[in-house]
């Protein structure tokens, strides 16, 4: 009896030692790989999947380790990255940690809500459909970390919460002399500033032009508002603005209406919201493109007309630039 017990102990110890050595030894994976663990998988399902995909040598060693370390109920679903040669212990630790792969989802400033929904639809790691396009101007464009399977509507809710938090913060720090009565009006004006310039250092000065015009009861005369009124946030105009477009009666055409349009023309980013809430202190009333991606500013119509004449000359020399003038107060193309 003693001999049998001793043999059993020795065999058990040998099995434990062999199992442990296989548990910590480099695994069979020959190249870095990614693997998705479905949400409805239990321990045995996961072990079978890992073995089938060549991540572990012995599924029973993996199962025994998971049970022995009380980790069997802690394995988390998701998409994981595993390095070549990862041991069974490395694999188990990764699944327990829940450190799934994160993707950067970048939403550029100024996109309309319709364009944002389209961008989410094209981002393949997300799941689900969007039942209703969010209200224009209610989303905060920036880079978001997402994981595979995140729902598109969850991302939109996250963007809306971020926008509200940022808007409240900026509204509390605004220059009280800026002629906007509500946070919603700040978003409207910031959306115009966002569309008018891609130069970060210009935003406060562009915002100042519109603030000065509002103070003087002048029409904003912003080209992007014409475009939004024509396409209503769905795509691009894909042609230069014409004189006929100026007279097209839309609620957003700030050549035709006084004050602010009834809503935003896109989703402004934090920088444009900040620039609009605290614009530069200038007397500028006009600006037009300078041919380098920026703008030249003017305090009166005489200066502006000279700047426009220079821009028209640039247009003739660079036909591809026509129709993207970023005008305020300049005559459109015929």
UniProtKB/TrEMBL annotation:
Record keywords: Cell inner membrane, Cell membrane, Cell wall biogenesis/degradation, Lyase, Membrane, Transmembrane, Transmembrane helix
Domain of life: Bacteria
Record function comment: Functions as a peptidoglycan terminase that cleaves nascent peptidoglycan strands endolytically to terminate their elongation.
Gene3D superfamilies to which the protein is assigned, alphabetical: Classic Zinc Finger, Endolytic murein transglycosylase
GO terms for MF: lytic endotransglycosylase activity
Family label: Belongs to the transglycosylase MltG family.
InterPro entries hit by this protein: MLTG-like
Name of protein: Endolytic murein transglycosylase
One Pfam family from the record: YceG
GO biological process: cell wall organization; peptidoglycan biosynthetic process
Annotated site residue numbers, Important for catalytic activity: 196
Span of the signal peptide: none
Gene Ontology CC entries for this record: plasma membrane
Organism: Ancylobacter defluvii
Catalysed conversion reaction: a peptidoglycan chain = a peptidoglycan chain with N-acetyl-1,6-anhydromuramyl-[peptide] at the reducing end + a peptidoglycan chain with N-acetylglucosamine at the non-reducing end
EC annotation from Swiss-Prot or TrEMBL: 4.2.2.29
């Amino acid at each position: 009896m003693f001999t049998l017990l001793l043999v059993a102990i020795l065999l058990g110890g040998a099995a434990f030692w062999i199992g442990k050595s296989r548990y910590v030894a480099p695994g069979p994976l020959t190249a870095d790989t990614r693997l998705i663990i479905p949400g409805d998988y239990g321990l045995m399902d996961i072990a079978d999947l890992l073995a089938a995909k060549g991540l572990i040598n012995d599924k029973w060693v993996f199962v025994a380790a998971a049970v022995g370390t009380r980790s069997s109920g802690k394995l988390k679903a998701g998409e994981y990255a595993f390095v070549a040669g990862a041991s069974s212990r490395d694999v188990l630790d990764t699944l327990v940690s829940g450190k799934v792969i994160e993707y950067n989802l970048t939403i550029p400033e100024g996109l309309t809500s319709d364009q944002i929904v389209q961008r989410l639809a094209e981002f393949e790691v997300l799941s689900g459909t969007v039942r209703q396009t969010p209200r224009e101007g209610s989303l905060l464009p920036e880079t978001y970390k997402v994981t595979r399977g995140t729902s598109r509507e969850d991302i939109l809710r996250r963007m809306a919460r971020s926008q509200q938090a940022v808007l409240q913060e900026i509204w509390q720090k605004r220059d009280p002399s800026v002629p906007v009565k509500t946070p919603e009006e700040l978003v409207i004006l910031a959306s115009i500033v966002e569309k008018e310039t891609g130069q970060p250092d210009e935003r406060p000065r562009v915002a100042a032009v519109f603030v000065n015009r509002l103070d003087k009861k002048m029409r904003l005369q912003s080209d992007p508002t014409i475009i939004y009124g024509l396409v209503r946030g769905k795509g691009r105009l894909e042609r230069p603005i014409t004189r006929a477009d100026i007279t097209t009666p839309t609620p957003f055409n700030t050549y035709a209406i006084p004050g602010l349009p009834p809503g935003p023309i896109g989703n402004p980013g934090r920088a444009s919201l900040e620039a609009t809430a605290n614009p530069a202190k200038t007397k500028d009333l006009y600006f037009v493109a300078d041919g380098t991606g920026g703008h030249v500013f003017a305090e009166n119509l005489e200066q502006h007309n000279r700047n426009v004449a220079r821009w028209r000359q640039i247009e003739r020399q660079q036909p591809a630039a026509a129709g993207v003038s970023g005008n305020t107060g300049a005559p459109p193309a015929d």
